[in-house]
# Entry
Amino acid sequence: MPTNPPANLTLPVMLWGEGNCVGDGLAYKNFLLQTSSHGIMIIANGWVKDIPGRGKNGRDTTLNITYFTDSIDWIHKQAGKAGTKYATVNATLLGASGHSCGGLQTIEMRSEPRVKTLASFGYATRESLPTTTPAWWGTFPNLNHGGTFNQANGGVWAISFAKWVLFTLKGDTAAAEYFKGTGATKDGWQVKAKALDKVPVAH
# Structure
């Protein structure tokens, strides 16, 4: 999250699941730092240092969905506490996101009532969404499964991710226009979208 967020800036929260569900909470560091710089708190699965017996870099280390639900429980207890760095965090503005295996975890959070938006990278489901559910699908030609995660500051995917969070959780009008208008396609995305007008935006 931003180090010193302005007192009048409400921070939404995004959970993040790692690729391969590894236990390395810094695996997507540059991407998540760029995202959080837009005024977003990120809670990434895993830990920072190796812990004996936990295998930070092992596959499926954080596969259990309780890594997400425990994070939700925790931030609901911390958010809004005066005099703490979480004073401006609003835990009701919360979403789930992740890459690959973390994208699978993201989809599995679709029935969690405390989760208000989803952002799955590199993972999809064949289950059809209700026609009234707002959805945006973007592909990026000439990029592999790793996308722009390893580019400087997470590349265009980090910028687009931040805009999605600000649009769907805070109703930011400029971020909304990025997805409803031509902003995303100008950045190189090939897009399919539906029902985005159902997402409330500020006026």
